[in-house]
Task: inverse folding
């Protein structure tokens, strides 16, 4: 999976991102992907128009609250929101996993080995 590094990231924006991530029980990395995914989805829906940047907060106020809630949820509200989410997950179609399907740990191990196979040759000239 590609990595993204942003140089000269404004500290105030980083602080806001960190607050959003904490409010949504996400890591900063997860929140960054979430925010970018939401933006790009709305951007595509708007036909790639640069004017989208202003529209979503007006046309889709729920997008702002889903991305970063400034209001603190009570534990009961958070519990209810999660209960509804799990209900939606439970309602998804079920599927059978083949018996010969690899275990998640094996998939991760293979991905790491593939990553190492690509990275190690590139780093060999550093030594």
Result:
């Amino acid at each position: 999976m590609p990595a993204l590094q942003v140089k000269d990231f404004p500290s105030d924006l980083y602080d806001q991102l960190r607050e959003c991530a904490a409010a949504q029980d996400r890591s900063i990395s997860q929140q960054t992907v979430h925010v970018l995914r939401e933006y790009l989805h709305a951007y595509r829906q708007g036909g790639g128009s640069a004017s989208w940047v202003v529209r979503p907060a007006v046309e889709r106020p729920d997008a702002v609250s889903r991305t970063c809630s400034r209001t603190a949820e009570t534990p009961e509200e958070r519990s209810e929101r999660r209960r509804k989410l799990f209900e939606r997950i439970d309602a998804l179609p079920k599927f059978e996993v083949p018996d010969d399907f690899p275990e998640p740990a094996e998939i991760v191990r293979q991905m790491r080995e593939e990553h190492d196979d690509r990275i190690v040759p590139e780093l060999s000239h550093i030594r």
Summary: The longest helix spans residues 104-123. The CA atoms of residues 116 and 123 lie 10 Å apart. Confidence is low (pLDDT under 50) at residues 50-61.
